[in-house]
Specification:
By secondary structure, this protein is mainly beta. It has one helix at residues 49-52; strands spanning 12-23, 29-44, 62-66, 76-79, 82-91, 99-105. It has one domain (8-105): Bacteriophage SPP1 head-tail adaptor protein (Thrombin, subunit H), CATH 2.40.10.270. Strands 1-2-3-6-5-4 form a 6-stranded antiparallel β-barrel. The chain is elongated, with a radius of gyration of 16 Å.
Length: 107
Amino acid sequence: MATSLPLEKWFEEIALLTPISGVDSWGQPTVTYAETTIMGKLRMMSGNEPLIAQRDTEISTHRLYTKIEGITPLNKFSYLGRLYDVVAVNNVMGFDRLIQVDLTYER
């Protein structure tokens, strides 16, 4: 019988950016981001996956797997100097064990 390895074996450190709203000295709204390091696995989608994963008008280019809950489309991720916007968040099978985050490459 085959033994399974824990999913976390493939996880890496990824920066989760959480927006913080404020007001500048001119009274204009501003948004800055607080950075937290999380563990997850980021991978590029291939083939028809981006079309299948399309949400509204944005097409997902990457998918992140993590165990961190509470991620919203307002968050961003930074990995290896690249910035990603959140397109959609899915609690896989509703088990609260694996969160699938569809991302689009920003820069």
